[in-house]
Design a protein that fits this description.
heme, iron, 6 helices, membrane, transmembrane, Cytochrome_P450_71
Length: 239
């Protein structure tokens, strides 16, 4: 249903929450499928190239799950601090969208010596921000989840838009509404992939030969498919 009001002979209609929430929910689910799968692929790409990081993440996950269960449950996710660091580092290097949705300036502003007139369309390059040596240091292009460890230089940096060097979901009032769902889905899927299997490259393929080029497009896809070989994990007590 809708709520109607009349003012000076004119009639306006305000849509009910049910009318507006359905398309918003649909956009969140559909828009999150592609970006979530892309993030998982990039995470696995970097993990297979960094066996120390993969081993550390797997040990954390398997310790949280225990040997009596084969799968990660949602209740396990708050315990997986290192996995969250892996995900954060993945989103720093490979934001789902290189350019955030464009905005329009409401008034004339001057930023960094540049005049930006009112009505200018502005797009934020999340990819460039995440790799800026001025913010991240000389190893800005390297995959290193340890940079987010508590007490480290970037230990307090989060994904919620308060730190502008890392804004894969945007910031402010128009931050991505599906961020919480996307992070939970990616973390849950990645945790189960790492918990249930050990991973390797196909025979004859070396980690340093793995193509890490990005394809063009709105979503940050890999240029070539990622091919990995899974081996079901068997806990020591069951071996």
């Amino acid at each position: 249903s809708s709520t109607s009001s009349s003012t000076s002979g004119s009639r306006s209609t305000v849509a009910s929450p049910r009318t507006t929430s359905r398309p918003s929910s649909w956009d969140t689910f559909v828009g999150g499928i592609d970006t979530s799968s892309v993030t998982i692929l990039w995470a696995m790409s970097e993990l297979i190239r960094n066996p120390r990081v993969m081993k550390k993440a797997q040990e954390e996950i398997r310790a949280a799950v225990g040997e009596q269960r084969a799968r990660v449950q949602p209740d396990d996710l708050p315990k997986l601090n290192y996995l969250k660091m892996v995900l954060k580092e993945t989103l720093r290097l490979y934001p789902p969208a290189t350019l955030l949705l464009p905005r329009e300036t409401m008034r004339h502003v001057r930023i960094g010596g540049y005049d930006v007139p009112a009505g200018t369309r502005v797009a934020v390059n999340a990819w460039a921000l995440g790799r800026d040596p001025a913010s991240w240091g000389e190893d800005a292009d390297e995959f290193n989840p340890d940079r987010f460890e508590a007490g480290a230089r970037h230990g307090e940096v989060d994904l919620h838009g308060a730190h502008f060097e890392l804004v894969p979901f945007g910031a402010g009032r128009r931050i991505c509404p599906g961020m919480a769902m996307a992070l939970m889905n990616v973390e849950f899927a990645l945790a189960n992939l790492l918990c249930g299997f050990d991973w390797a490259l196909p025979e004859g393929t070396k980690a340093e030969d793995l193509c890490m080029e990005e394809a063009g497009g709105l979503t940050f896809h890999r240029k070539t498919p990622l091919v990995l070989v899974p081996t079901p994990y068997v806990p020591p007590s069951a071996a």
